[in-house]
Each structure stands twice: as C-alpha cells, then as structure tokens.
C-alpha cells in the first residue's frame, strides 16, 4: 500500500509538471512590454553598478532558468523583493540563483524524512507516510528559510562595512576637491586609493558609468539604490547640486563624513552596552548557581535530620 501511494504521488507530480511545461500561457501585450522595460532597466543598472564584480557563487544555466521562472511568477503576484535584491547585490549573487537554491533546499528538506520513512516502513518500523510527510513539510519550510536568513545576516555585516568605507570615501573626495580637482576627477582619485571590495565596487561603478556616458553622481545614486545604502544616495544628491547649481559641497561632504562616523561610533557603543548587560546577566546566573551549590548540602542535611 505504501509503495502504491508513493508511486501515485510521483506519477501525479510528473503529470502536473508535464502539464505546466506543455501549457501555453496567455500573454497580455501591455504586461509583456512593462516586463521588458523593467528587465532592460534592471540590466542597465546591473551594468552600471557593477553588480557582478564582487564575485558571487557559480550558478548553472538550469538554476538560472528555474530561478528566472520563479522570479517571474512572484513578480506576477506583485512581489518585487527589493530588500532581498539589495542584500544579494551586496553579496554578489543573483536573485534567480537565490530563488533556485531556496527551492532546492526546501525540496531536500521535504524528501529527507519522507524517503527515510518510506524505507523504514518496509521493515515495519517508522512513523508512517503521514508522519513523515508532516515532518518533511516542517523541514522544507526550515530548509527553505535558511538561505534567505543567511543572506540577510551576511548582507547586514557587509552593508555596515560598506557604510564605513563610504565615510572614508567622503573624506577623500572632500580632500581632492580642496586640492582643486573637479568632481569626476576627485571621485576617481578617491576610489583608486584602496583595493577593498567596497571601494572596488565604487571604482568599477564610476568606470562603467563613464563608459556608458552616465554622470558619476547618477551612477553612485543607482549604486546606493542597488545595495540599499542611503549614504551613497545623499552623496549623489550633494554632487548633483555641484553640477547643476554650482554649490560648494566640500564642507558638506566633510560634515557628512563626520556625522557618519559619529553614528557608527554610537552604534558600536550601543552594541558594547548590550554585550555588557549580557555579561552581567551571565555573571548573575553563575553567582546564583554557586550559591545553590553552597546551600544544597546544608539544606539536604537539615531535611534528612527532620
């Protein structure tokens, strides 16, 4: 009976997949044009912001194709996943590859207990197909959430490092402007003084923008939108004032850099305070345990005498 249920499930899944592949979806011309414009703008932004310059994971063509279909399906339901795109851009990964990895992890988490339960059921032991299916569903959700949680955690650390680099970049740009250089020359010179991954990303963005005929401040603004760093957007707006209105921005850049450093210092002090409180709680627990260790023999002696 178990073998029949498993074979029926596999046959049903195959029939569903075959029907999905052979079915020809109806295409709305307006939606297709809007999607084409969106993909073109996305490809242009990826070229300008050097989205693949940080070296992401190697993705096969089949994974990209699967991820592309999943992305189109999710966008069809109105899910743009802007924050996830920014996190993956910081990590040098694509949204298509991430979606394909998520689906494969969820599938692996589902199949592990189901297959193990099916094998054990032939020996007369195990939880049964129903129990294995429930455990598989739970593991599928957990395994599918792991890539996204890992990506968000890693992206938060890299975004914090990126903000630190942007503060140094602001100081360098202000120094170059004070030396009499123009804005494009100041940006290029400031970005060429370090080989860190964040500064390399900025330098590649400026170089690509020059090749595509895009202004440096516009490219930096698009890079800020791409990776979710507000400081780059502010820098782009300040530099645009220099180009359009002729405003003096050197003092403003130095003030922005100082403000950014003070905010980072406040965040570091806040985290240090939280860790100090955690250490106090841990010490209190140790003290309670030590007092209990001292009091326990005497308490047991009193209880035995009574």
Structure description:
The chain is mainly alpha-helical. Among the domains are: 1-23 and 81-157, no CATH class; 162-245, no CATH class. 83% of the residues lie in helices and 0% in strands. The chain contains 11 helices and no strands. It has helices spanning 2-22, 29-48, 61-76, 82-91, 95-122, 128-178, 183-191, 197-211, 216-227, 230-245, 250-305. α6 (128-178) crosses α7 and α9 (216-227) runs antiparallel to α10 (230-245). The longest helix has 56 residues, at 250-305. The protein is flat, with a radius of gyration of 28 Å. It starts with a helix and ends with a helix. The relative contact order is 0.07. The mean pLDDT is 78.
Structural class: mainly alpha
Distance between the termini: 64 Å
- Please tell me the overall pLDDT: 78
Helix content: over 70%
Secondary-structure element string: HHHHHHHHHHH
**Number of strand elements:** 0
Transmembrane segments: 119-150, 280-299
Membrane topology: Multi-pass membrane protein
Subcellular location: Cell membrane
Domain Type II secretion system protein GspF: 169-296
